[in-house]
Amino acid sequence: MAIANAKKEFIMVDIGCNGRVLDGGVIFYTKFWEQQCRLNLPEPSPLPNTLEPYPYVFVGDEAFALGPNLVKPYPEKTVIKEEEIYNQPLSKARCVVECAVGILVTKFGVFHKAISLCPEKATKVTAARCYLHNYLLKKDPQMYASSSSNSDEFDLMTMQRSMFRNSAKCAKTIRDKFCIYYNNEVKIVNTQL
Question: What are the residue boundaries of the DDE Tnp4 domain, all occurrences included (predicted)?
Fold first, then answer.
């Protein structure tokens, strides 16, 4: 599992979960999940054109469970127009991580097939490539990422949904709050046109 910032740098990677674990379940085995109450996120603050505070959140895909600081899109099968408007900026944000992983795989051939090492060494090789990825992005981002595909060209992987995770009511309320915000922003932009 990886968390990336807007510059496509990995700010957290948790390597080594068994590949047979469903994507939605992987997060529960990570240090991120264990430590999220100690992340020292900033206090909620207003978004543009609002006075009401919104929490700082991580953006995940449909496979993950909602949390007070983890939002995800509404399920595609049941989405209504307002939820679709909310899903669009979330999809763009999620593309950043997909693009970071795409660059990593493109630049380091070791990821083009199964790594033929014991799990401990494979974990170290993967972590070293993630550190090197960040270093090269900071040193010369144009040169390093130039031959990689544009983030718009990366299709988001279709993830298996987790049917066994119930989201807390609080987390659903936070997602709904962001949904209302994005829909209001679309209305503001449309009235300005």
Answer: 2-134
